[in-house]
Amino acid sequence: MEQIKNFYNNAKPKVVGFVKKYYPYIIQIAVFVGVLLFDLITKSVAANRLDLRCTNCGGRGSSVDFIPNFLRFLYTHNYGVAFGMLGSGTPAMRAILVIVTTIMAGGFVFAAIRFRRENMWSKISFSLIIAGALGNIFDRMFLGYVRDFLQFDGWIGGWFSFIFNIADVALIVGVLMLAVWIIVMYRPQKRFVGPIMPKDWTVEIGSGELESNENDSQIAVVSIASLNKTNVIETESKTESETFVEENNETDS
Fold first, then answer.
1. Within its chain, how far is the Cα of 154 from the centroid?
2. 8-state DSSP, 26
3. What end-to-end distance do the CA atoms of the chain give, in Å?
4. How far apart are CA 248 and CA 243, in angstroms?
5. What does the pLDDT read at residue 232?
6. Which of 39, 139, 148, 153 is the catalytic position?
7. Of 8, 209, 27, 20, which is closest to residue 127 (Cα–Cα)?
8. What is the pLDDT of residues 67-105, one digit of tens each?
9. CA distance 133 to 129
10. Contact 122, 165 (CB under 8 A)
11. The model scores a pTM over 0.70
């Protein structure tokens, strides 16, 4: 019992420290996994509990009200893109859709890694987009179609009659959140890289920092937000002029 207590006391600070350090990424992964599992589970339940609506096979489907005059369940197979568009595509077209959507999902994965240090809003938007894309890619790859089961009713259904699923909702919400982040929140970090200096030199310029390169030299990396780039260029030009004069003096002597 004492050993278990000691193990708990030793492990607790490490676990707490790990969670505090990586909690944004933990939340991002949790949103991704949760949305993807919720999408696949709801599709499976709809396929097992609802009758299929199929225009080609004559199935009229069963409509079940979820929120009266707002949202209902109506199960169908979507062989096209989101919201049933291009539903009459050929097998070759469906294969192209799988390839294109997989490449797009890979691009968003790369973007999520590239902007991993941004705020929580961007992390959640990337998680929603990737989870939604993978949810529909899973259906296309293993079933040949996407399982849709949600449809608006009432006045909304009068102008938006498409049938969709949780993955489509995650995609739309994620794209809207990403657009808001790009337009309102995102501020790219501009950096000015100064001249290469010998390893034994030191520099202190504003909030700059030193980075080592492959040749064991150091590069002064200074944020433009905390440094006037014009002053740096003038200083560099002055130094080059002085060096040129000194070399000429040594040659004349």
1. 34
2. H
3. 86
4. 9
5. 41
6. 148
7. 27
8. 888 999 999 988 876 555 555 556 777 788 889 889 999
9. 6
10. no
11. no
Q: Which one from 39, 139, 153, 168 is the annotated catalytic residue?
A: 168
**54-65 pLDDT, tens digit each:** 655 555 567 788
At which residue do the structure tokens 């009068």 appear? 158
**Residue 51 annotated in active site:** no
Helix (H, G, I), strand (E, B) or coil at 95: helix
Euclidean distance between CA atoms 210 and 112, whole angstroms? 27
Residue 162: its H or E element: none
**Residues 127-141, buried b or exposed e (16+ Cβ, 10 A)?**
bbbbbbbbbbbbbbe
**Helix, strand, coil shares of the chain as percentages rounded to 5?**
60, 15, 25
**Contact criterion met (CB below 8 Å) for 83 and 150:** no
Q: How far apart are CA 131 and CA 133, in angstroms?
A: 6
Q: Check pLDDT > 50 for residue 181.
A: yes
Is 168 among the residues known to form the active site?
yes
Taking the C-alpha atoms of residue 176 and residue 183, their distance in angstroms, rounded to an integer, is 11
Question: What 3-state DSSP class applies to 18?
Answer: helix
Sheet holding 218-223, edge to edge: 191-197, 218-223, 209-212
Confidence of residue 180 (pLDDT cuts 50, 70, 90): very high
Q: Measuring CA to CA, how many Å separate 54 from each of 58, 148, 211?
A: 6, 12, 62
